[in-house]
């Protein structure tokens, strides 16, 4: 009986040891493949309540036009009034190679059927100027992401519509056709007048991709809007927000801005993170797991056989 217990103890130790090694190796691979990027907060391009200091200024941002600051609630770029223009711009350029800007905003108005015109987020070489393109100048250089709530002409998509444009400093915005000639990517998104907190998250990896996600259906549920591959922005750009009303109007508010510098992963690991799910790869991984399990079991069996042969030889000797 004692010999049987000794055998079982020996087998158990071998099995637990091998299983632990096997499990740790699998966990290590999973961690390496799914680790996220590290982030460094950029205070110079982030903004929170109460927005201004005792001198009614902000160290890192300028604001102008019809912009009004409510220190307990929001920065209102435009009121729900006709012919207003407001803007908010970083004082320093955003020079990070890879970055992410997440901001909370609110678009709403008193008219449930006729409203506009919209707001925009900018990463451009110019800053703090008023103009006809959602409150900023035309023929800009850099990136503009437009939250367009009013259709100037008949389009295949509905409004509100979120779209991106890369400006070269010479090409005008196609205002009459809602930017159709400048359309880089976009999505329909019911971002106006929502009871849920509305947010946008813009992620940029230089020479890799630009991605926009939106929160407007449920809290912490991020809806993909678009991803544009192989995007390169100017080296020096300023972060800005602007809004415009014309014959129709809405209030356009910025509640908070959080900007992070992203520490890039090695290309191989980064590619693994952003790729889509591949059923063939998953099947192959499962097959390898079964093979490893069979090999481990066989190895344990061989060790047990050797151990028993050794025990029998020892008993014969004595």
Automatic annotation (TrEMBL):
<keyword id="KW-0732">Signal</keyword>
<dbReference type="GO" id="GO:0005793">
    <property type="term" value="C:endoplasmic reticulum-Golgi intermediate compartment"/>
</dbReference>
<keyword id="KW-0472">Membrane</keyword>
<dbReference type="InterPro" id="IPR005052">
    <property type="entry name" value="Lectin_leg"/>
</dbReference>
<dbReference type="GO" id="GO:0006888">
    <property type="term" value="P:endoplasmic reticulum to Golgi vesicle-mediated transport"/>
</dbReference>
<dbReference type="GO" id="GO:0005789">
    <property type="term" value="C:endoplasmic reticulum membrane"/>
</dbReference>
<protein>
    <recommendedName>
        <fullName>L-type lectin-like domain-containing protein</fullName>
    </recommendedName>
</protein>
<dbReference type="InterPro" id="IPR013320">
    <property type="entry name" value="ConA-like_dom_sf"/>
</dbReference>
<dbReference type="Pfam" id="PF03388">
    <property type="entry name" value="Lectin_leg-like"/>
</dbReference>
<keyword id="KW-0812">Transmembrane</keyword>
<feature type="transmembrane region" description="Helical">
    <location>
        <begin position="284"/>
        <end position="307"/>
    </location>
</feature>
<dbReference type="GO" id="GO:0030134">
    <property type="term" value="C:COPII-coated ER to Golgi transport vesicle"/>
</dbReference>
<feature type="domain" description="L-type lectin-like">
    <location>
        <begin position="39"/>
        <end position="262"/>
    </location>
</feature>
<keyword id="KW-1133">Transmembrane helix</keyword>
<dbReference type="GO" id="GO:0005537">
    <property type="term" value="F:D-mannose binding"/>
</dbReference>
<dbReference type="GO" id="GO:0000139">
    <property type="term" value="C:Golgi membrane"/>
</dbReference>
<dbReference type="InterPro" id="IPR051136">
    <property type="entry name" value="Intracellular_Lectin-GPT"/>
</dbReference>
